[in-house]
Amino acid sequence: MRILKDKFTFDDILLVPRVSSVNSRWQVDTATHLTDKIKLNIPLVSSNMDTVTEHVMAIALAKLGGVGIIHRFNSIESEVEEIIRVKREQNIVIEKPYVVSRDITIGQIKEMVNEKKVSSFPVVEKGKLIGIITRRDFEFEEDLGRKAAELMTKDVITSHKGTSLEEAKKLMAKYKIEKLPLVDKENNLIGMITSKDIKLLDGYSKASKDRNGRLIVGGSIGIGSDYLERAKALKEAEADFIVVDVANGYLQKTADVVKQVKKLGIEVIAGNVATKEGVLNLKKAGADCVKVGIGPGGACLTRPVAGVGYPQLSAIIECANNGINIMADGGIVKSADFAKAVAAGADTVMIGGLFAGTDESPGVIVTKESTNYKFYRGMASVNAFSDRALKTEEAADLEGYTPEGTETMIPYKGTVIKIVNNLMGGLRSAMTYTNSKNLKEFQKNAEFVLLTSSSKGESKYK
Ligand code: XMP
Questions:
Q1: Same domain for 256 and 396?
Q2: Radius of gyration of the chain (CA)
């Protein structure tokens, strides 16, 4: 029998300060790589959990320079819709705008506005643009039975494929319009530019964007029966990468799924593992990044239930520097944990519970004894298991299920922007303390000191 000794987690150590020429937190560069091909300006990822990441969270994170991963605990169509919503958010060209026909009624259009959260629709007939109907045209119309053709603008100002940002801005200013449909020579609708997207684009210089200026987002799949269909649908929806999300990344099936999904020609992140052996196995299968963490998460029960796990700081240290990017996943409860995870070698850090309970996390606010809460639950909890079965129409044997996740109510925290700023403030401070201008230097300069129980007491909030 082998017993590994001296393995640590975040609260067991501190970073050692050094003489530093980095005098300000704003002098540091926090850019990193999610995978070799995907660059981020901050090393933060929101977890693919159904109480953490849908499109609202993914949009917020990408705008701040990180990225969100849409969860897979829903139907394939719903996951795809979430991806599409992120991709539409900051694209100056909406390639497939929602369109309506001339016969659609104002009542139906109003329903679409509520459902799709867009307020203008090009009107098309056999693919050709015949008009545009915007909120102005129908907002105060009381006769819900009137047709789009009666109220639409027929002389639409349009532009062509490849219209630049500057050209679009000029046309919008000249004609005082907010939507600019793009058509080909035969007047077929091929896209649309909106002033809202242009304004947003101007406002977020650090955002994580793809080659077309759209926000970056990831989708997730499991290893159950629908994984290939789901992966193909996510690729089709232009997700930037796919996470093969399995609690046990050591299963042969996990590596097999990674191999197959890689063949679709998309970046793949796989996990979870906690040792070098696990990383190398998934790297060999073709993964572009490996997710590290067995049981450190706030809603995890794997350690008490299965007795399996690995202290997270040591897991990160051992999994880093194996020729593949790693994402530390789980156990971050304060900015110091985040800074230590990055110092230990994590290229990116995945956050669940800390981002739950925010405006951007899915779910409603519930009030109990005058305090507001939102739910946070492990994806292996009983309710997540049974909800998922309902949403994906998979059979669920609740009697025979041993949950490895908990469910809690998290006090409502306001916007996630505040939490990201706190985490980044901690990381930036740690970088100045260790004379590190960028994350490479931070990881090279990092030296940890092991704490005794009384020095742990000394480190506590006073
Ligand atoms: P934090 O600590 O950020 O952790 O809330 C988020 C990570 O926890 C993992 N996760 C689970 N682990 N049982 C587990 O053992 C679960 O039910 C469960 N749900 C999520 C996951 O890796 C997530 O990113």
A1: yes
A2: 24
Q: How far apart are the CA of 297 and the centre of ligand 1, in A?
A: 4
Residue-wise pLDDT tens for the chain (462 aa)? 899 999 999 999 999 999 999 998 888 999 999 999 999 999 999 999 999 999 999 999 999 999 999 999 999 999 999 999 999 886 678 888 899 999 999 999 999 888 888 889 999 999 999 999 998 898 888 899 999 999 999 999 999 988 877 789 899 999 999 999 999 999 999 999 988 878 777 677 799 998 877 899 999 999 998 999 999 999 999 999 999 999 999 999 999 999 999 999 999 999 999 999 999 999 999 999 999 999 999 899 999 999 999 999 999 999 999 999 999 999 999 999 999 999 999 999 999 999 999 999 999 999 998 899 999 999 888 888 888 777 776 766 777 788 888 999 999 999 999 999 999 999 999 999 999 999 999 999 999 999 999 999 998 876
Residue nearest to atom 2 of ligand 1 (CA): 297
Host domain of residue 145: 106-198
Nearest atom in ligand 1 to the alpha carbon of residue 272 is: 22
Looking at the domain assignment, is residue 126 inside a domain? yes
Number of the ligand 1 atom closest to the C-alpha atom of 353: 5
Q: How far, in Å, from the CA of 48 to the mean position of ligand 1?
A: 9
Query: Do residue 119 and residue 194 come from a single domain?
Result: yes
Q: Is residue 371 packed enough to be buried (19+ CB in 10 Å), middle (13-18) or exposed (0-12)?
A: exposed
Task: Return left, alpha or beta for 363; rule: phi > 0 is left, psi -120 to 50 is alpha, else beta.
Answer: left
The model's pTM is: 0.81
- For atom 19 of ligand 1, which residue has the closest CA? 378
Q: What is the number of the ligand 1 atom nearest to the C-alpha of 350?
A: 24
Active-site annotation holder among 300, 319, 339, 342: 300
175 & 314 share domain: no
Q: In this structure, what CATH number is given to the domain that contains residue 134?
A: 3.10.580.10
User: Is residue 4, in this structure, part of any structural domain at all?
Assistant: no
Q: Is residue 444 included in any domain, yes or no?
A: yes
Identify whether 300 is a catalytic site residue: yes
Q: Considering only CA atoms, which of 278, 360, 284, 348 is closest in space to residue 60?
A: 360
Tell me which residue has its CA closest to atom 14 in ligand 1.
Answer: 300
Residues 6+ apart with CB under 8 A from 162: none
